[in-house]
Amino acid sequence: MKLNESVALVTGAGRGIGRAIATTLASHGTTVVLTARTWTELETVRKEIESHGGKTVSIQADITQDDQVERLFNEVSSRFRRLDVLVNNAGFGLFAPVRDLSVGDFDSMWKLNVRALFLCTQKALKLMEPQKSGIIVNISSLAGKNAFIGGAGYSATKWALMGFSKTLMLEVREHNIRVITICPGSVDTSFSQQERNSARSGKILHPQDVADTVLAAMTMPERAMVSEIDIRPTNPK
Length: 237
Prior knowledge:
Blueprint: E1 7-11, H1 16-27, E2 31-36, H2 39-51, E3 55-60, H3 66-80, E4 85-88, H4 103-131, E5 134-139, H5 152-172, E6 177-184, H6 193-196, H7 207-218, E7 228-231
Parallel strand pairs: 1-2, 1-4, 2-3, 4-5, 5-6, 6-7
């Protein structure tokens, strides 16, 4: 893919991993559509990208709301008439033993981490399939492959995401659409505040590590697809 001729939509682009991916793609010439719930965060990222000569636009949306997903993709289609990359990054975790995890918290994680990702993917495919090209990047987690105490709800969403991604890859490859699933360990963001406050904070991954991995996978030769990547600290001790 020629990044300098492409349009990418990044969800959860206001901070953390989403912000790092958005700024990295923009630095390579991609026109980046930023979306998140918080307008002030989006505008901060937009101004950062534009200050370095990048091309970007902010569209505020809560992708857990069907009508806002519809509006988001209608605006992308109206502005650009195409979509080359979707980065499904938005997500969050609430951690507690199963006996203590509330139904509301469980449902909230599923609504954003799985259902919203499904809706965004469906809308993106309507633009990508006629083009016979595209890349869908799903940000999962090593929690989608491993269990840990207190993580049943969050891990369940990421295990579901892994199954969704594997099936999606098989369904859309005939349209020359690549599906890439990224599975980081703990990343130094506000998401993992406990890790940041621990003695291991200097050893865990940074958002830019994930962004660089996404870029490397996206820029493989068109005939090759890296469908799944695990990212761990080199030396976590």
